[in-house]
Amino acid sequence: MNEELANQIGSAAREARTHLGLTQAEVAGKLGIAHMVYSRLERGKMLPSVPTLLRMCSVLHISADELLGNSGTQEVSRPAHGSRGQSELPQVRQLLGLARKMDEDKLHALVTVAQVLLR
């Protein structure tokens, strides 16, 4: 586990939660996870799954960049020009944009479909 990333996510989540005046239990309930799991996330003891991270962004009214500690001044590492990752980037962005607009049930269905496609 990347401890620095886990601490960053936890710290940003705690700050956003307190700014909204919510308790850990309230946020955990909205995320559909156990209170103890959310507590571990805030303390940087574990990393959230991608679907949980996206739900955290929605519930805490915070962007994924803010949650992950990416400021506008940081340069994002990109694959070399012409690599497979570079050509996939627009589709990945499109998929993420669509996923952010989905409710929890549709997001779960999307994850299930993606897992089936990877088999």
Automatic annotation (TrEMBL):
Domain of life: Bacteria
InterPro entries in the cross-refs: Cro/C1-type_HTH, Lambda_DNA-bd_dom_sf, TransReg_Diox_bact_type
Record's keyword terms, sorted: DNA-binding
GO-annotated molecular function: DNA binding; DNA-binding transcription factor activity
Keyword Hydrolase: no
GO cellular component: cytosol
The keyword DNA-binding is annotated on this UniProt entry: yes
Chain segments annotated as coiled-coil in the UniProt record: none
Domain HTH cro/C1-type, first and last residues per copy: 14-67
PANTHER family hit by this protein: HTH-TYPE TRANSCRIPTIONAL REGULATOR (PTHR46797), METHYLPHOSPHONATE SYNTHASE (PTHR46797:SF1)
Official protein name in the record: Transcriptional repressor
